[in-house]
Amino acid sequence: MASGQARRTFVQFAARGPAQRVLSANVRGYAQVAAVQDTKPPVALFGLDGTYASALYTAAAKTSSLDSTSKSLAVLAEMFKKDGKLPSILNAPTLSPSDKSQIVQEIQRHMGAQDKGDTVKNFLKTLADNNRLGMLPGVCDKFTTLMGAARGEMDLTVTSAAKLDNKVLQRLEAAVAKSEYSQGKKLKVVSKINPDIMGGLVVEVGDRTIDLSVSSKIAKMNKLLTDTL
Predict the structure, then answer these.
(1) What is the 8-class DSSP label of residue 163?
(2) I need a surface site. Which of 115, 142, 171, 188 has the fewest CB within 10 A?
(3) What is the pTM of this model?
(4) Cα–chain-centroid distance for residue 208?
(5) Which helix (H) or strand (E) segment is 217 a member of?
(6) How far apart are CA 151 and CA 173, in angstroms?
(7) Residue 153: which residues within 8 A CB-CB, separation 6 or more?
(8) How many CA atoms lie within 13 A of 98 on its CB side?
């Protein structure tokens, strides 16, 4: 019964047609399922992957499977990190229904037996039916954001040109925790590497961004020179 309820929720949120029409339809559907406060996603997410992540959160909350769903998606997120080719495979426009079915089965095999009530299984089928399997990596990321917010956590994303050691990250976490940016919430440190920033750091806390990157400083200097000349 729980599986059927989750399936109906996914279908309600399934993306069909142009993105704008999809989002409008999902807003209406979301208003209905969000009537029960306990199932409402703790924060609003943007983008189609955010819409799907919110739908999954609602379905998992209604079937009391948030914990098992979170663990399943964590396994998938780790799988995507280890194999950079997987996202491009999922996005292939030539995938046949048979291909999609096999991919879903393979993903389920990697998740193991922790999918309570087949919540994630039904979700994967919905993505496959709507040619949205390629959004799975983004959904995993957005679902992590929802679960963190539900636990009262706040993401502290630190982007650097090269990998930072744990001591540096710990000092940054301690400094931000004492500042007004943390809003008194528990911080969850996420370290990212982007060589394009050339040096320095880009620190994101909640919806605030502190850009201390070399690339940002160069861009400001170029603008100043351009305006002056």
Answers:
(1) P
(2) 171
(3) 0.62
(4) 18
(5) helix 214-228
(6) 18
(7) 185, 186, 187, 188
(8) 0
